[in-house]
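Subject: Predicted fold for Precorrin-6y C5,15-methyltransferase (Decarboxylating) subunit CbiE, 429 residues

User T.R. writes:
Posting the sequence so we have a shared reference for the thread.
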Amino acid sequence: MTTPPPAAGALVTVVGIDAAGRPAHPGLAEALAGAGLVVGAARHLAAVPLPPGCATVALGPLTPALDRLRAAVAAGTPAIVLASGDPGFFGIVRRLRAAGLPLRVLPAVSSVAAVFARAGLPWDGAAVVTAHGRDLRPALNACRALPAVAVLTAPGAGATELGAGLVGWPRRLLVGEHLGTPDERVTWTTPEEAAGRAWADPHVLLSLTDPPARDPLPGPAAAALRTGEAGVPVFGAMRADNQPAAAPTGGWALPESAYAHRASMITKAEVRALVVARLRPRLGRLIWDVGAGSGSVGIECALLGAAVVAVERDPAAPVRANAARHRVDVRVVTGGAPAVLAGLPAPDAVFVGGGGTDVLAAVAARHPERVVVTLAALDRVAPAVHLLRAAGYAVEGSQLAAARLADLPGGSIRLAATNPVVVLTGERP
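User M.O. replies:
I've generated the structure tokens; pasting them so everyone works from the same file.
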């Protein structure tokens, strides 16, 4: 159903103000001339020439401002809302629309566009997420998963906290503080350096993959941004399309031939399809692949946008090569579980493809939302179920026994059975 247009003069005009306080749209002067109400933060109200006698509302809690705006619309009084940058980009437009207000938007340059411009980098393949007024973890996991992410930050959820969470991931960070103002500062840094200092609000953070240089950088350049021959920043591959976290074009539950593996030691495609579905990978989630081996499960979770830590005790396992082959960023942690799990960031879901009950107990002790386990030996099923239930998980399970088509001499076809596997899924209520 299409909403009918509002009466003339009853629109709320939402105007973006750039970081330096300059209105970006020439239509503001005309809108202000007839405005009966102007709403905005105190700094924005001070940045524009308000008409004499015009009523104003300085934003604090939004509800009183929404009430005043509704009353203005009902009375046919033109109203203006001033906001930072592009107000339809993680901004106030969403809340105003949800309140049922009829809007016209005159945007300025967003802070994300501004910080990429300061860096001289394209951003059409980047993901943009926000940590403003919400849990930091989805934004952090997006930075762990994707090669180019812009984060809108907030006090307590900014470059310091994001840097601390990105230690161990090869990332170069760019922090833009007070963009467009005389106090503007744009700083290239590392996760470790970002975590160890305070940053001025407001600021925007870029997280970019930082592949290791072929040769160590000498002297002061060791801590600087790595550049190419022309001095242009060099980063890992950014997706060339406009779907930075879309489902992979090649699909998932890929055949075993899509991965290097040893002596068929790989989660079969039929089992992997169910396991990945149970792990629920998506942008903003962190998944552990414990006993990764070839890394097929973790890699397919990464292809679906999740951040992935692959734990594997054998340093010669092909997980790194497979991740590179599929062009995903999987953090590989080499060491024996359960000891190596202690220092890892908290996961949303865990796949346990190897190890005994001590590994499963260590995983359950971290309280992930979901735990998925594959078991070939039946005598291990009951102890695993009891352990998960004792840890507070509701457990369901099934046996998968696939039979694949195989050719016989003379053109006949038979079914060739794969080894049956029990898949257990533990979910916290």
